[in-house]
Every structure is written in C-alpha cells, then in structure tokens.
Amino acid sequence: MDAREEAVLSVENLKVAFDTDLGQAEILRGLSYRLQKGKVLAVVGESGCGKTLHALSILKLLPPGGKISQGRILFKGKDILSLPPEELRQLRGGKISMIFQDPMTSLNPIRTIGKQLTETILAHRKMSKLRAQAKALSLLKQVGIANARERIKQYPFEFSGGQRQRIMIAMALCLHPEILIADEPTTALDVTIQAQILKLIKKLQAKNEMAAIFITHNLAIVADVADEVLVLYGGYCVEKAPVQALFASPLHPYTQGLLGSLVSVNKKQEKLPAIEGYPPVAGQELPGCPFAPRCPRATQQCLAQLPALQENNGHAVRCWHWEKKV
Amino acid sequence: MTAPIIVKNLVKAYGSTGWFGRKAEKVILQNISFTLRENDVLGLVGESGCGKTTLAKVVLGLEKYQSGSVQVFGQELKSCSKKEMQALRRRMQVVFQDPYSSLDPRQSVRQILSEPWDIHSLHKSKTLRQEKLEALMRSVGLDPQHLDRYPHEFSGGQRQRIAIARALALEPQILVADEPVSALDVSVQAQVLNLLKNICRQRGLGMLFISHDFAVARFLCDRIAVMYQGHILEMGETEQLLQNPQHPYTEALLSAVPLPDPALQKNKASVPFVSEPKRCAQTGCVYAARCNYYKAEICNGVNGDNLSQNDDKYCACVRMPFKDKKSRFAV
Questions:
Q1: What domains sit in chain A, N to C, each tagged with a CATH number?
Q2: pLDDT tens for residues B137-155?
Q3: Which chain A residue is nearest to residue B155, measuring alpha carbons?
Q4: B residues 216-275 closer than 8 Å to A (CB)
Q5: pLDDT tens for each residue of A178-194
Q6: Distances from the Cα of B279 to the Cαs of A138, A159, B50, B276, in angstroms?
Q7: What interface predicted TM-score (ipTM) does this complex get?
C-alpha cells in the first residue's frame, strides 16, 4: 500500500500567517508530516513556536486575523481546507476531536456536565436522548469519575481541575474519533493526576486504534506517550524522529540543549547546562536558521541561510552542522 | 544565633460567615512545625490546594494565623507592630510564580527595582543608586542598559530575573520563592534555576522554595517537606527523602513523576495512585482515605502529627511500610 493512503492525517507544507499592524507575520513556516493510524505524534516546542496554531489550523479554528497562507491538510486523502462547512462540522468532534489547554475555561459554566456530554453525542449521532445519557454516564465512569450517576447532574464548578480535564477528555473521546489532538492536556495539573490522565489516554488509544497528536513542552510526557516527535522552533520543524532515536541521539543543537537542560529527578545535579539566550518572538523575521543566535555551533552561513530539512533513516534534522560532534 | 524562621504547631483557617450568621471555617494549615536555618534551602512540595502557598504567606506576614507560633528572626509575627513588620520585611523578600502579573506594567525596570529603596529610605544619592542598580542588573544576568525599559519589552525568563532582582534589592537574608520557574519555558527554566542556586550560594541566603515539581526541588533544595491537606507528612534531607521515602504519600507522589527517557518510562513500576478517596476518612491519619497501606486497627485514631517531631527528619506515618526499601531515584 502507498504510504500516503495509510496516513490518517497528512500535513503538507503548512504555513500560517497573522495580520499585524506591521504587515503579515508568519508564525508557522512550512510544516509537513504524516500521522499513521494508531500512532502518537508529539509536537514539542516553546511558547511562540507555533505549536498550538498548528493544532487549531487542522480543525480550521484559527483565531481572527490568522490564516493559512499555504499548504494542504489531508484527512484520509481529503483536503480539510476546502471542505464545505457542513462536512467540516461533521469532522470536528466526530472524526477529529481536540482537548484544549485550559479545562477551566473550555466547559460551559451554566450547563450541567451531563447536558454538555449528551449535546456533543446528539449533534453527531442519531439516537434517543436516553441512550445518549447512558453513553455519557459510561464515559464518565471510564475516565474515572466516581459516583458518576450523581455527578452527571452537577455543574463544572463542582469539579476539581483534574476532574474537569477528565470530563473534557470524555467529551473528546465520546464519538470514538480517529484522531485526538491534545493541546498541553496536563499542563495545569498535578503530577499524580497527570499520570492518571496519560494512562487513560494511552489505554483508550490502544483500544480504539486512535491516532493522536500531543502538543506539549514537557519532554517527560513525550517520552511516555509518543511514537514520533516533531520539534518546532521559531515556526520551523527543526527535528523529526522516532521517540527512541530522538532521546538517544538528538541531532539538532536545540534538541540537544533542551534535553541537556532538563532538571532531572533521578540524579543529583550541581549546575544545569542551560541554553543561553531567549527563544525568538513569534513572527520575528530571521533570514537564517532560527536557532542561530543561541547556537554554540553557529557560523556565518547559519545566520544568513536557512538550512533544509534533511532526512536520514527516518530521522530528519534542519541544521547545517548536524554531523559535527560537539 | 537562632534560626531565621521557626514555625511551631501553626494552625491557620479561613473563616467566613455563612448564611444566617452561621460560621463556616476551613482549616488550611494544621499543626505545622519546621525550622529554616541560615543558608538553608527548604522545599515545600505538594499537590495544588495542599496549603503550601498559604504557609508561605503566613511566614511573610501577609496572612494571619489562629494558633501556634511563627518566629522570624526571633520575633513572633503575631505580636509584631507595623513598624517591626516593615523592618522584618527588609530581611525577607519574595519572588512570585507568574512574572507576567507580578510586575507593574506601567513602571520601568528602574522604578520597579528602586521602589523598595524608596519605601525603606535607602541609597538616596543619585550616583550611588545608579551604581547599585547596575550591579543588581548584572547580578541577575540582565544588561544594565535596559533599565529604562518596561516589563512588556522582556520575555518571561527576563521578567522573572527582574522579579528576582527586585527581591534582592534590599539584600535580604531570606527569600521566599513561590513556584518561580513553573511559568517559564523549558530552556529558560534551567537558566533561572542556575541563577537562584548561585545567588543563594554567593549571598548565603536562606530560601523557602515552593514547588510541585520534585525534579526542581532536588536540584535546588537541601531539605524537602512534603505537604498534604495542610499537614507536613514527611520532611528530610533531599537526597534521603527521594532515595528512601518513608511516607506512603511521598512514595505515591514520586512514582507519578514522569521521566524524560523512553526506555526508563516503559519499564517503570508504578504505584497505583488513588485520587478519589477509597474509604471514608476516620479520625487519625489524614492520608488514610487514599493510602495503599491502610490498616484500620493501626491507622484509625493515630494522628501522625503527634509522632515525635525532629527538625531534620520527620514522617507522619505510624506504619512506615518501607523502612529499608530504596526508591527508583536511588543512585
């Protein structure tokens, strides 16, 4: 079979730009990848690198002022960007669903959890209200909400942050989507609840053969859930590799710095090898490699010219000097 | 000399008058005791809502407390006058979590950093101030030429450096840091952690460091206190506590920490963590409702807080199920 047919989602040269007072600012500058069925892709990057915008553009939910200036997003071979509104609506929540970053603000505060869950189900499936309610109940049990029969009648404020996030997950999973997009699903949560939620997503993902995109800045989560990792910096993909390869032998100096600067809980460290400098501001124009100003290996060439993404045995890197040892 | 901060049997509750004048009281801190010595970095680690920030506020004199004693540099906070409190604040400063909301957007860095001196009437001469400001900026790794910029012109990491510089302006002896790196990007977090460590070393500062992240605490702290629902459940030297946790809660928390290594992550043995109470909590151990090692006849009726308390090592569990077991973080 052709690799392209197998992929549930393929993103080709995606560019996203924003209108600003100073003209157009390009935030995402050409992103390409393929997501296979049942696999987990992690998109890693710091604030302003375009990782959230990339997720929003898959569902065509870009905030006002933002637009996809180039590229294609194919869901099972169909271009999402040219779908008519009705089909797009079917896709959102039905085939591709998303867990948003902030569980506090993404639930409707004046409707009960049960209403919100059944609403989602009824919007996509033809079934009686009663059956939808039963389904919502079983979902709440699946995500580990104790006493679900009582709690389904409660409002969001009656739940803790972790519970609300689990309700969001229940809502995202209720129609067995083929792709789950999780934007920093555990950032606001304690480690204990984070561990539970990751376990839950992994379990459901294995059961339903669902593909997932995890957007995060937490490399420990990446190590836990991902099959493939895509590292974004300054709007470019700077490295893309299977998870083992990335952690064992990162090629891009940014990835190396990122892994090196992690505070580790399993060893005692005296000083952290931090990356000097600060990440570029979103949309900042840079002629060369976006990482060059902070890079220990940077040369004149790096500052002037953008390196291409080169692939070797499934491990792609965007660097002029990736073969050099540091 | 006495230790800078001595807290004994502290109890703090938020009270409110409910419907029809009924009193509703929620106990936030229960029977907390610890000592922060000179040059010592003590980490307070726990889940959100366990009371670690409230504890820091009490120590800073920003919140009142019901009973117990909080002594800062030998002075009982409860009986401090306003003037005495201001003098104490010169020796004790704070860095907050979010550098986006803790700096006044209308003040330039120069104003932000010299405001503490205005309040305490220090360094009044213009040239001296300029010198001091420049030294301050350099000490936190910022360019002194940026003194007249405003907070919005800086990135998150730089802002947190400004917040640290402001805390250092009065040359305090104690720093209270409430999750100072949790809002920062990964690559910048390491810079700020290195900075905090250096500052504490060079200036001999004592620090009360609040965090939910064991990795950060291990890097920075000499000792760690693990908090749960307003109680300190375990306290000890960082390395000892991480390598050989005594309390079931500490063990459960540690087992939930994800490791940035796919190989280790795959074969980690996880302790089932219970977030919903398994059983109705009885009088006795606060953690009983979620504990994996609960035994009714032993755990009910025994309040861990009454176990012998030692400043350096403390565990509020009567059972101590893993006396000789090493954690997965043992070297």
A1: 2-226 (3.40.50.300)
A2: 999 999 999 999 999 988 8
A3: A278
A4: 216, 218-219, 239, 242, 252-265, 270, 273, 275
A5: 999 999 888 767 787 78
A6: 23, 19, 20, 9
A7: 0.81
